[in-house]
Amino acid sequence: MAGSFDESGADLELVGVTKRFPGFTAIENLNLTIPAGSFFALLGPSGCGKTTTLRLVAGLEEPTAGRILIGGKDVTTSKPHQRPVNTVFQSYALFPHMTVLGNVEFGLKRRGISSARELAHEALRLVELDHVAGRRPAQLSGGQQQRVALARAVVNRPALLLLDEPLGALDLKLRRQMQLELKSIQSEVGLTFLHVTHDQEEAMTMADTVAVMNKGRIEQMGAPEELYELPRTTFVANFLGQSNLFTGDVVSTEKDSMTVDIAGLGIKVPRERAQRHAGEVTIGVRPEKLTLHTAKPESTAGVNILGPGTVIDVSFTGVSTQYLVQVPGLPVLTVFAQNMVFGPVAEPGAEVYVSWRVEHGFGLADEPEPEPKFAGDDDTRTIAVQRRQRLEDELDEA
Amino acid sequence: MAFGAFANSGPDLSAAAPRRRSYVAIILLAPGVVYLLATFVAPLVSLVLTSFKEPGGDFEVGEYVYAFRWENYAEAIGRFGEIFLRTFGYSLLATILALLISYPLAYFIGVTLRRFPLWQSLVLILVIAPFFISFLLRTLAWKAIFADEGPVVSFLQAIGILGPEDYLNGTAFTVIFGLTYNYIPFMTLPIYTSLERLDLRYVEAGGDLYAGPAQRFWRIILPLSLPGVVSGTLLTFIPASGDYVNASKDFLGSTNTVMAGNVINDMFFQSFYPLSAAVSILLMIAILIPVVAYVARSGSEDLL
Amino acid sequence: MSTQEAAALATAESAPAPRGRARSGRGGAGAWVVGAYSLLALAIMMIPIVYTIVFSFNDARRTNIVWRGFTLDNWLKICDDARVCESFGNSIIVGVVATVVATILGTMIAIAIVRYTFRFTTLITILLFLPMATPEVVLGSGLGSQFVNMGVERGLWTIIVAHIMFCISFVVVTVRARVASLDPALEEAGRDLYASPAQVFWRVTLPLLMPGILAAALLCFALSFDDFIITNFVSGNAETFPKFVYVAASRGIPPQSNVIASAVFVLAIVIVVAAQLSAGVRRRKLAKTG
């Protein structure tokens, strides 16, 4: 009835999967292969199609087009109860009318497995909850419920375990703890995990491979460090952490690097870290890679320098301090500086320079956007800062 | 539970979840719908047909043939016009009285007792307790209490409100009293349900924004409990207007308090089926028009 | 449970209840007036109930209007007036059959209208709403005249037919709320955990709907058991308990009918109070362990 159940998980392959709902397309021609035994995260904002992908794999939705293969077997038309796949639901979906044990052995019993009870106890021991086997789910805490939901899925030894934002309802501390637990359980049982989340930190902490999804497509896929250090699109650069992005024309190309004209300054980017090498391009650098200088630094080979600019805001965030720097002709720069000394390095209004090593820059694949329709397409905070700046300028003049 | 609030927060699917459409729906619906067509719609049609029948056969009582006799309606309106007005007046009055009694009661249970869940459910049981004891026996109990030599009449005579020859049973007072009493639970329960869900923080926000107690009631509490008031008044007015037990002479009424329901009942059992049917149709129309207008005005078409 | 988890849980549980348990914003005097008014209203509502129960112990002769002294005879010889017991039995038969049939039909409709889209949704909604918006006397005279037109002999079964009709809408309304509040993820979890569609229905959906279905069944039984207005038109010679009381009202009600009404009342109240108390105990237990 329920296909074969592997001990080690199986590959998942999506081939040209499209899902349309009346009125909109949730997923457009999605191709994806998840190798057996991996911990794979689908990361994206709400509405990007990640949960729909998960439901398609579980069989809770039928694709409009395309095929879904698990362990090489086409399951596109199989019903959910015929697929070797189990889900940890977002709200856990524990059956409130059954005990914890009843919940965990539910799947085994449906498959007619004779040792259901022992296996269920074993799974509960794995999540350290065997002592509450006789209770109802409503009598458990959120973290305990989450672990029961996990045990209920893992006990079936599915080829593929789907996790639908399983930690979303937990508070921060508990979430951290569960992240580590999930990861260790995954390596213990060796199943293939497909984890859906909108929390970039959670995806990066837990997964071997992260796929960033946007508007029904996968923008970029790879190991967490790779995605962070070398984003390929504006969406990834901004969704995964923060980025300082600049747009300009490529003016010259050297052996290893290329020079881009940014507001009259020549900014270098390594060639192999840029997706496009001619015409108008968008390049970027992460805020923590930037260094703040109160005096103009010596220009050195292998270092990009911007400035002079004005510090328009300083905010202390504990481990680091965030500076917003306005360089004429450029978007507001964000700089993260480690708090190595007490107090800020520069006060608002100070004249500063910003530098970074060439190898930290990256070039994006996006076609540069046409002229922005609205001048200040910034977040409210930047706008507020700019307003204050203008106001102070006016006061100075008066 | 704090985490319950997060359930189903995934906009990915909830916006898109299409309802299924299949033959299963037909299998689920068909038996009940066919049943209602046969036992509710067909009788209404039959009632309309009957209301136009004329005496037939050998002119024996109770023998009628299908015809198109408008005169049945003319007769119904001519003979019972005053009774229709009385029915409407009695039911309206009973509904208003029930509302005046039920709203504070529902507020007391739903809001004041909110901090004492056990007391709340026990008092709620008192409200529905009348459901568990025969409606007819309760009405007869009032008849005994309002009897000419009973405690209420004796007391009212002693303090001079009633003259020595006056009585209560069989008057409009007892009929309206009975109607009000019998339908209070139908009024209280829906109002209670909407007050029980009322988030008191709205009321506090009103107080924070300079609303005094009266304004908090008129501008916050009452509008938020209006759905309950609407269904409560409907659940009281509709059955009260069709009631014929309270107004019956064996209960709290007399020949001076006859309501439409009594006419329908009496005509039916005297085998004047067309006249009984015509009065039924007229009553139904007379009820449905104000009810539909009321529902449309209060904007709660989604009563079911 | 780790200490971190316990701490997290404690903060989660101490979060304010969503309904806002704040003290009633209205002043003390207002609350007292509302309370006193409510208790007075409740006390008046209880008078006929107390009267009915007290007079079940009356040493009545021909009529049961004047108090003649306390006796247990009426309770010990309930069936002395055979018609009382017979009509009571009929009411039970009618109530049980009508409840079972109406609950099944109504539950099916409730599931269909929440879960499926179909044409004529509005028409079906109106069809379900109208029986509740029609005065009972019209329902009764309509069904009665249809039985007369068709030449059907009226009796117990026609009463059952009528009671199923007026119960269906109430069952639909009650169960529909439960179906609508059912988290679809629970059924999806069932499907995900290898349960076939039939197994999902019997092991997940139905048990979760059960409280709503039971409430609907109780409501239907109570409506059927106490109905007189419709029953009167469709009963022919058959007699239910309310019809017996109505007929007997003109010549005097035997005290045995008070006994039956009181016994049913006490039984119902005991069941309801017990259910409430056990729910309260369960809530408290949950609050302690949860």
Description:
The complex is a heterotrimer of chains A (398), B (304) and C (290). With 398 residues, chain A is α+β, with helices and mostly antiparallel strands. Chain A contains 9 helices and 20 strands. Chain A has 2 domains: 12-229, P-loop containing nucleotide triphosphate hydrolases (Rossmann fold), CATH 3.40.50; 242-397, OB fold (Dihydrolipoamide Acetyltransferase, E2P). Chain A has a 6-stranded mixed sheet with strand order 6-7-8-3-9-10, with helices on both faces. Chain A has a 5-stranded antiparallel sheet with strand order 13-12-11-14-20, with no helix packed on it. In chain A, strands 15-19-16-17-18 form a 5-stranded antiparallel sheet. Residues 1-6 and 371-377 of chain A have low confidence and may be disordered. Chain B has 11 helices and 2 strands; from the N terminus they run H-H-E-E-H-H-H-H-H-H-H-H-H. In chain B, helix 3 packs across helix 7 (172-196) and helix 3 (71-110) runs antiparallel to helix 9. The longest helix of chain B has 40 residues, at 71-110. In chain C, helix 7 packs across helix 9 and helix 8 runs antiparallel to helix 9. Classes of the chains: A alpha+beta (398), B mainly alpha (304), C mainly alpha (290). Chains in contact: A-B, A-C, B-C. At the B-C interface, helix 2, helix 3, helix 4, helix 5 and helix 8 of B face helix 2, helix 4, helix 5, helix 6 and helix 7 of C. Chain B: It is found in: Cell membrane. Chain B: This is ABC transporter permease. Chain B: It is a multi-pass membrane protein. Chain B: Keywords: Cell membrane, Membrane, Transmembrane, Transmembrane helix, Transport.
Entry keywords:
heterotrimer, B: 304 residues, mainly alpha, MetI-like fold, two-stranded antiparallel ribbon, 11 helices, 2 strands, disordered N terminus, C: 290 residues, 12 helices
Helix fraction of chain A by DSSP (H/I, runs of at least 4): 10-25%
CATH class of chain B: Mainly Alpha
Q: Do you know the CATH topology of the largest domain in chain A?
A: Rossmann fold
Task: Provide the domain count of chain B.
Answer: 1
Number of helices, where a helix is a run of at least 4 consecutive DSSP H or I residues of chain B: 11
Alpha-beta classification of chain A: alpha+beta
Q: What proportion of the residues of chain B is helical, as a percent range?
A: 55-70%
The 3D shape of chain B can be described as globular
Shape of chain A: elongated
The biggest beta sheet of chain A reads:
6 strands, mixed
Largest interface: chains, residues each:
B-C, 107 and 105 residues
Assign the CATH superfamily of the largest domain in chain A. Answer: P-loop containing nucleotide triphosphate hydrolases
Oligomer: heterotrimer
Q: Which fold name is given in CATH as the topology of chain B?
A: MetI-like fold
How many discrete domains of chain A?
A: 2
